[in-house]
Write a structure and sequence with these properties.
This protein is α/β, with parallel strands linked by helices. The protein has helices spanning 11-22, 36-46, 62-72, 87-96, 108-119, 127-138, 153-163, 168-175, 179-192, 198-207; strands at residues 2-7, 27-33, 50-53, 77-82, 100-103, 124-125. It has a 6-stranded parallel β-sheet with strand order 2-1-3-4-5-6, sandwiched between helices.
Amino acid sequence: MIRVLIADDHTILRHGLVSLLSKDDDIQVVAEAADGLEAVSKALELKPTVIVIDISMPGLNGMEAVKRLNGQLPGTKVLVLTMHEEQEYVIHMVRAGASGYLLKDSASDELIDAVKALAAGKTYYSQYAASVLASQYNKPAENWQDPYKNLTNREREVFHLIIEGKTTKEIARSLDISVKTAENHRGKVLDKLSVANAAELVRYAAKNNLLL
């Protein structure tokens, strides 16, 4: 049985995916998650065969979630299911550790085929994603640097909470840390990315397609 975790912050879509995948006799949806942190937490607990994950999620975006999952659960395969078809998303998600990439307007049969392919240890990319990866392979010199640079995992969480408009107290509460610690992380994020304040950080996020 292929055990699947679905992570998407849109409840109706997530429930639709659960209904669709549950109709296949070889697939069991073991959990749902509404944000990246919940996805990582439930995945570590349940160790699913395949995780179907969106890129745009609150708290911890799909890119960061995939990176953590790839590092902590190497036996679990990740299929990105997203509306983002820009090539930088394909490149960054695959580099983060995704084994598959589909757009949300794909046919339902293709989603099931992709889940089964990943469960069998293969990769599965949509025609567009495959063309992007082929192009990147032929242009290895093209610059695809990590837009988060050298931020730690915690600093990346703080990064996204800042651009969501959270105050330092709200960040501390969200991450269950002290206000002083949140202030320290906030300062390091701004310093490492060479921006002076939250407004500049939002502009940095927009420029680097990190408003996910």
